[in-house]
Amino acid sequence: MRLDIRELNLGSDSAERDINLGLAEYFYPNVTYQKFLSGRKTILVGNRGTGKSAIFKYIAATETRKGNLILELSPEEYSYELLSDHLSSEEDGFWRKQSAYSVAWQYLLYTLIFKNIAQTKRGLLLGATKNIYNYVASKNLLQQTSSIITLVDYLKRIEQVKTSALAGGLRSQGLQALYSLEEIQTLLPSLKTVLKNTKVKILIDELDKGWDNSEDAKFFIAGLFQATQKLNLISPNLRVYISIRQELFDNIPQIYEDAQKIREDVEVIRWGRNELLELIGRRIVHSFPQATRLDAHKLWKSIFVAQMTSTGVETIDYIIDRTQLRPRELLQFCKLCAERIEYSLAGRRIDEAAISAAEESYSEQKTRDLASEYRFQYPYLLDVFEIFRGKRSHYDKEDLDYLLLAIVCGEYDVERAGSWILNMDYLELKQILWKIGFLKAWVPRHTNRRTTLAGAYLGHYEVPTINLENIERFRIHPACTSFLHLKAPSS
């Protein structure tokens, strides 16, 4: 089937911008989505660009159409700087901040639920819910617009009682009232009455926006996790969902204090080749409805030539290999290819020349994005990547270890990254470069539920449990090859 590539529109990389422009039509309902839709999972963990926001936006749109009560907390609701500016440190405030944040989050979520029940007039004919409407009116909740201010105000109330000059008994009484959510408790029977006939879903997404790695930021998220667990016990018809980046989830120690409690609620989003191909196929069909009957492989071949002429590698595999199996990266690369159709010698299809032209831009974007993604754990990663510029793309174990040893010993100038990298054990640096996806390891044979490979270079995102010291061959991720001008092996 001949399609006019100039009419191809793959949509936006951002679910926030795309939800009203086509996402509802070409959303791919993968296994992770099904688990969240059913309420079996409530904590979505994934790297940047893996589709977390798309899942949450699609759930919100779907559930709203069903008439359910949906609350979305957007990135604009969070302000880590505001938290640090207005609250004393844990040591100075003489308080356990995680517990305080947990109860403040519960207070905020309850007030948001009550406010939306009043706005949508849920349970209005049920006499038992009258006190919810009275509470909303007495607290002037319908006029309140900032969730973060509500949360900070409750934290300040706890802090003021903690640091007040009240006698011990009065202070304890005041704290007990705040920590037990005394003013909320009398409303819970009415809430449960509403929940018998109404489903309420709260979606809290993009907690990494504005993240500053501060004490308050960590307690903010750890407290949210605790609060979520408590609210999700109230009724099967009330669910609070959290989306969080893998990097934050793995590096907030406070979360792991409750790891066993939340493990069964956590779903880590991962993609395989066929799922990514299906995702891009649905977007192609959105531009060309006449191709609806074609399967994903034929849809791809209607836009791209089948193979890279120089290597014989399928174009879909060539492009996916330059991602970390993240939908956003696949979309970015494919859109760049479509923009460079004038380089193509294959007429109406994107060929190797257009792909190569797109790769120059994509490689720089991906390499810089990778450094940005881990900027709080490993600041100035780009200065580390620059050490590899112009060198080889492939290494055996001995050569790679020698290069990494030279880096940590200061033989190479890593500039601003020196604050954390100098005098580090070279094996630790190898582990870091592997975990962030900059390094891929040669695995002789690998089988999982998505792939069976006789031998391939795999990243941490594909096979996270291997022992690096048993790996004899490595390569720099192909996404970085073009930007860093890495030299391919001679054979």
Automatic annotation (TrEMBL):
SUPFAM superfamilies, per database record: P-loop containing nucleoside triphosphate hydrolases
Record InterPro entries: P-loop_NTPase, Sll1717-like
Full protein name: Uncharacterized protein
Superkingdom classification of source: Bacteria
